[in-house]
Fold this protein.
Amino acid sequence: MPTLAPDDTATGSDARIFAILRRLARSPQGESVHELASSLFVSESTIEADLTKVRPLVREFDVTLTRNRDMVSLAGREVDRRRLVRQMLLGSARGAASSSLGIVMRELRRFDLGDLGKILQTSLGAGGIVLHDYALADLTLHLAIALDRFADGQTSEVEVGDVKPSAQILDTVAELAARLQESLGIVLPSSERIAFAALLESRTYPGAKGPDGAVDEHVALVRTVISDLSSQYLLDIHDEVFVLNLSIHVKNLLARARTGHEARNPLGPDFKEGHPLVHELAVFVASRIEELANVTVGEEEIVYLALHIGGYLQRTLEDADQVSVACIIPEYYGSQGRFLDRLRVDLGDTAASVEAVPLSRLDVPASIGADLIVSAVQQLEIHGDVSIVEVSPLLSRSDLDRVNAAVRATRDRKSAARIRWTLSELLDPRLFLRVKSTTRDEALRMMSEQLISQRIAPGHFLEDVRSRERLSSTAFHGSIAVPHSMNMDCFRTAISVLISDEPIVWGESNVRMVALFALSPTGRQVFRDVLDAFVAVLAEPSRIQRIVGSADNYEHFVAAVLAETE
C-alpha cells in the first residue's frame, strides 16, 4: 500500500479525514493507527481524534468503521465503499469538506480522467447512447473509481435490482470493455460489466428511441405530478415535449432510486440558494414522485428536477418583477423602430414590454402605465413616481448601460415593495418569538403551536412542516430558514417569526432567524411570487445580523425588516 509522500501530506483536518478514508477504502485488511499517523506526519492522538469524525461519516453510506486493537478497517459491501469514495472525491460527504482537487487527481493517478472520458464517450456514441455533460462527468468518475478499486483487487458485486440493462446497453458496455483493454490493458470481469451496465441504464436512454424512451407508465406519472404542481402553485403547464422529456428523466430517476445509484448534484449548494422557488417546486415534484412510486428521492436528485422545471418555467416565475418600459422617441424615417429593436434586444427578458408612447399622450401621465420611461426628448416633465432615463435618439453603449441599470433598480424596488406589503399583511405580534437558544425541532414545535392556538393552522401542521423539512433543508445562505407545509391547507396565510440570540443548527447551516409560513389555499400565489425575493433580500447574512441586533421586540423587528427592504 503506497503512502503519501511529504509533499502530498494532508495538512488540514478535513484533508486528513479524506486521506484516512481513501486509505481504508483501498485496504481490505485495514491500517494500523501507527501507520496512518506515520504516513500523514501527525501524532497517533490526532489520528484517534480524526477517527471519531470518520465513524458517523461512513455510517451514512452503510459502511462501518471497525477496530481490532491498533488495526482500523471499513466493513461493508463493495458497492457502498465505492459510493463513499465517490462522495468524498466530489466533496459532497455531509458534514465534512473534501480535500483539494489536486489530491483527488493524485489519488486517482493510475488513470487519466480525460482519457477515460474520451473512451467512454466514444463507446457510448458507437452504441447510439445519448449522454448529457453532467452525466458524462459523473459516469467517468464512477468508471475511474471502479477501475481503481478493481486494480486493488476489489471486485464489484452484481447488484442491479429493478434495473435490467437492455441489449443495446450491454453491447455498449462490451464495446467499452474492449476499448479499455485495447487502451489500458485492463480486462473487466463480467460482474464489473453488469454493474456498470445497470448504472449506465439508470443514467441514459437510447438515442434511437428519442423522446419515446419514456414508457407510458412514466408519462402517466409525470402528467399526474405536473397537474398537481400546476394546481398547487397556480401554474399553467401544457407542453407535451416538456412532459416527455421530464418523463425520460423520471424513468432514470426511479431506476437509480431503486438501486441506490443516486445522481450527483452537478451544481453545488449555490443553485438552491440562487433559485429558492424553483428548488421548492422541485421538492414538491420529488414528494409526489415518492408518494406515487414508493421510492425515496434524495437531495441530489432534486437539483436535476429543478433544472428541468426551472428551464421550462423560469420566464413565468420571473414575471412578477419584470419591468414595463415606455419609450418616448419621435418617429423620423424609421428611426423609432430601430430604436425600439435595439433596446428590446439589449434588455432581453428583463423587460416585460418595450413600447413607444405617442407624444400626444405625454400630458396624461397615468395613461403611460409603465414602470420606467426611456426618453429621447430632453428635459421632459412628467408628474408621478415613474423614473425617467434620458438617452440619445441614436442609442449608444453608454445609453444602454444606463437603461439596464435603471431596469435593475426598478425591479429591485418592485421586489422590495412586494416584500414590504407581504410582511405588513402577514406579520402578527402574537406570532413573534425571541429566544436565547433553541433547536430546530423545538423552534418548529413552538412556532407551530402558536399558529395552531391562534386557529391559523390545522392540528397536523407541525407534522406537515417536518415532512417538508425532511425532503430538503429550508435554510438559506446559512442565516435564515423558511420552513412551511406543502399542503397549503391553513385557515389563513400568516408568518410566524423566531429570532435566536445563539445560532440554531439547521441541517448543515446555523441560522439566527426562522420565518415559518402558514399558507392557506388563497395564499399560494403570495408564496409563489414572494419566496425568491424574500430569500434574496432577507437571507443576506449582514442584513440578518442587523435585524437580529435590533429586533428585541416585535415593533423593532418590523422596523428593522422594513428598513432593510427600502
Summary: The two ends are 62 Å apart (CA to CA). Confidence is low (pLDDT under 50) at residues 1-10, 92-106, 206-214. The CA atoms of residues 339 and 395 lie 7 Å apart.
